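Researcher: Structure prediction, please.
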Amino acid sequence: MGRLVFPTGIRVYIDTQILIYSIERHPRYWPILDMLWTERFEGRASIVTSQLTLMEALVGPFKSKNDRVVAAYKAALDSGNVDFIPVSLDVLERAARVRAGTRLRTPDAIHAATALHEGTDLFLTNDRAFRTMSELRPLLLDDVLSAVG
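Model: Predicted structure follows.
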C-alpha cells in the first residue's frame, strides 16, 4: 500500500472527502489518513480546511439522521485539530477568479481559493478536478494507494 510521508511543519489542506474519510474511518483510505493525523497529533503537521467542508460533510449524516456521525463532525470542529477557515470576502473573490479560469464548480473553487489564501503546502483530495491547478500541489489518495512500493 502507498504511504504518505510529510516534511515537518507542513500545512495540509483537506477537502470534504478527506474529512469524511477520516471521521468515518473509510476502510480503504483510513490506513493512509491515519498517518496524516498522527503527524498532526505529534505536532509535525497542521491541517487546514474551509468552514464549507463542515457544511458539505454534514449533508449525508443529516439525510440519514445519523446523530452519532453529526456529533463526530461537530467534535472535529471543536477539537482544535483542524483549522477551519472562514469563507471570507477575500476567499470568495479569489474563488470567483479560480472559477472563471477553470472548470471547477463553486464549492471546489472555494476550497481551492481557501488553500491558496492560506498558503498551504499540499492539497489532499481524491477529486481529479483539482489536478488542473498545479499551484495547489494536489495529491489524490487514489494515487497514493496505487504507488505500491
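Model: Strands lie at 10-14, 45-50, 83-85, 122-125, 138-140.
Researcher: Thanks, that helps.
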